[in-house]
Amino acid sequence: MPTVREAIKRLKLGSNLDDHVAMAVWCTEDVLGRAKELDIECSQKQAEELIDRIDHKQDCSIGITWDTLDCYLYDLKDECPGCKMPKVVCICQRKDD
């Protein structure tokens, strides 16, 4: 769910406005703040992509937690800036022998 506007639209279309609901909202500010705490460089664009990835891949049995954000941020730290693959498997930055 990329934006608050889209979340509101989804709720209005699929819900009775008087229904009781439980939800937690995670945003780019959460990602950027946690990245700063972990001393991981993270741009606004990267934070947006990370939130989108977390939302798309979340485990509904566990939910999204600070540990979830940490895992994605540590992956970001070890990501190749060119291809977005983990540095351990990326070949775009390797020099030819």
Overall domain count: 1
Radius of gyration: 17 Å
Helical content, roughly?
A: 40-55%
Q: State mean pLDDT (0 to 100 scale).
A: 82
So what's the overall shape?
A: elongated
Quantity of strands, as a count: 0
Uncertain stretches: none
Task: Report the end-to-end length measured between terminal Cα atoms.
Answer: 44 Å
Q: Spell out the helices and strands N to C.
A: HHHH
Main β-sheet, in a few words?
A: none
SS summary, helix count = 4
The computed structural class is mainly alpha
Summarize the structure.
It contains 4 helices and no strands.
Describe this entry's structure for a reader:
It contains 4 helices and no strands. The chain is mainly alpha-helical and 97 residues long. It has one domain (4-77). 12% of the residues are buried. The model has no long low-confidence stretch (mean pLDDT 82).
